[in-house]
Write a structure and sequence with these properties.
Strand content: 15-25%
Number of helices: 8
Number of domains: 1
Shape: globular
Bound molecules: S-adenosylmethionine
């Protein structure tokens, strides 16, 4: 079976904003992850924000509703078309582009913030992506991200349980070998001139296997998720990295 099958996103694009779409649970992560991101950016109004791997635009619209000036980029032209159509229907001005994270079509030192959520586990090259994000960020700008660690726990939960057994996530959407550990990511960030890095577990499923099952059951019944931030980074983790320099302030 093909792994990290990105064609899935093209196939999903037309239904991206339907509440019954396979990808729709991704939209529910934003209120949770921004509890963490807001620690570093308390006021988003007027900030130039780039969302890398924006899909059909859940995070771009979430950011635009909070007053950010938003640009989104994704490798899937179909997702970008869906994102543009939805932004038009909601009246949000978002600048969307088709393109890859490894070669961002933007001038250097342009954005105050880059968000990259649920994407680093899919890109072809994490170091190149991080270097590109570092290039387009203003000095002192923030990269805010979440991604999957490469551990036996993430393989067990994300691949075997959620993809292969319960089929809650499309089979083949992840390639476990492409997951990146917090240590590897920190090294890439430091090499790309990010001087401050903070990473915490994005504990969607709970600390204990039983509470993981409880959360899955709750999700199954209600369609909603809960999360906490802690030191458990074995599956899903969230973080902030700040580019060297200080030409911006986030209020
Ligand atoms: C799990 S989805 C996340 C979408 C969005 N960030 C969200 O959370 O709603 C992963 C997205 O990353 C995009 N993607 C994967 N590799 C990419 C790359 N190298 N450059 C740009 N986008 C990429 C996919 O097309 C897909 O839309």
């Amino acid at each position: 079976m093909e792994r990290n099958n990105l064609a899935f996103y093209d196939q999903q694009a037309a239904q991206w904003w339907d509440e019954t779409a396979t990808v729709f649970p991704l939209s529910q992560l934003n209120p949770l992850r921004f509890q963490f991101f807001d620690r570093y950016v308390p006021d988003w109004r007027g900030l130039q924000v780039l969302d890398v791997g924006c899909g059909g635009g859940y995070t771009c619209e979430f950011l635009a509703q909070r007053g950010a000036v938003v640009t989104g980029i994704d490798q899937s032209a179909a997702c970008i078309a869906a994102a543009q159509a939805h932004a038009q229907s909601t009246g949000l001005a978002i600048d969307y582009h088709t393109g890859v994270a490894e070669q961002l079509p933007f001038a250097g030192d342009r954005f105050d913030i880059v968000t990259c959520v649920d994407v680093l586990e899919h890109v072809q090259s994490v170091p190149t992506t991080i270097a590109e994000i570092g290039r387009v960020l203003k000095p002192g700008g923030f990269l805010l991200f979440d991604t999957l660690n490469r551990t036996w726990q993430s393989r067990l939960l994300m691949i075997w349980l959620l993809e292969d057994w319960l089929r809650l996530i499309p089979q083949g959407i992840h390639d476990w070998r492409q997951f990146v550990s917090p240590e590897e990511l920190t090294r890439h960030l430091q090499q790309a001139d990010f001087w401050e890095v903070e990473i915490q577990g994005f504990d969607l499923f709970g600390r204990h296997p039983l509470s993981q099952l409880q959360t899955l059951w709750y999700y199954w019944q209600t369609g909603s998720l809960w999360a906490k931030f802690d030191d458990i980074t074995q599956v899903f983790y969230i973080g902030m990295a700040r580019k060297h320099g200080n030409s911006m302030s986030t209020g």
